[in-house]
Design a protein that fits this description.
heterodimer, A: mainly beta, 5-stranded mixed β-sheet, 4-stranded antiparallel β-sheet, B: mainly beta, 7-stranded mixed β-sheet, globular
Chain lengths: 115, 113
């Protein structure tokens, strides 16, 4: 799977949008971008994923650049409960088995939402 | 998405003993994954468990230390054998859920003394 690069930490004011960047310059054409977050002492939580187009769900929006070499996760109105480590991961979808099914976690970005 | 129940949620164990962690899913899944998260670190995949076949271990993890069972499509166990303080970690199981990526259990926090 392609490697990702994220800032170690970010701060955001409560109620403001949190924009978390991720670089994945070696991403392949069939690799999706996934975002997860891990709130302290809990298992990782799925947020959103996408291939080429921007995606939005009830939790967040995912903006992927046209060349697909980077993406941004947007939490539109951050709350204190959004304080967590956010992981950006790229992998192939639908390839269970073999070496491509794995989720490889980097160090992620610690987002701290301040009151 | 799938709901995962993982037991125990935490345990304190003596070195040299073994602990078996259970992972129960509310739906049938082909593959189940076991991860380790050492203190202050990110998640590392230990092995992948397919029903009816031997688990596939990642580099640095061996079956003698982390034996895995997968008796059916909704259940798996991971045993941490002959424990040492270096095995103190959070152990998580995970399954792939269509449309939701991977779902994770809440983890087992293991402390070895």
């Amino acid at each position: 799977d392609a490697k990702t690069t994220q800032p170690t930490s970010m701060d955001c004011a409560e109620g403001r949008a949190a924009n978390l960047p991720c670089n994945h310059s070696t991403i392949s054409g069939n690799e999706y971008v996934y975002w997860y977050r891990q709130i302290h002492s809990q298992g990782p939580q799925y947020i959103i994923h996408g291939l080429k187009n921007n995606e939005t769900n009830e939790m967040a929006s995912l903006i992927i650049t046209e060349d697909r070499k980077s993406s941004t996760l947007i939490l539109p109105h951050a709350t204190l409960r959004d304080t967590a480590v956010y992981y950006c991961i790229v992998r192939v979808v639908g390839s269970s088995g073999g070496s491509n099914y794995k989720l490889t976690f980097g160090k992620g970005t610690l987002l701290t939402v301040n009151p | 998405s799938a709901v995962i129940s993982q037991k125990p949620s935490r345990d304190i164990c003596q070195r040299g003993t073994s602990l078996t962690i259970q992972c129960q899913v509310d739906s049938q899944v082909t593959m189940m994954f076991w991860y380790r998260q050492q203190p202050g670190q990110s998640l590392t995949l230990i092995a992948t468990a397919n029903q009816g076949s031997e688990a596939t271990y990642e580099s640095g993890f061996v079956i003698d230390k982390f034996p895995i069972s997968r008796p059916n499509l909704t259940f798996s166990t991971l045993t941490v054998s002959n424990m040492s303080p270096e095995d103190s970690s959070i152990y998580l199981c995970s399954v792939e859920t269509v449309g939701y990526g991977y779902t994770f259990g809440s983890g087992t926090r293991l402390t070895v003394v």
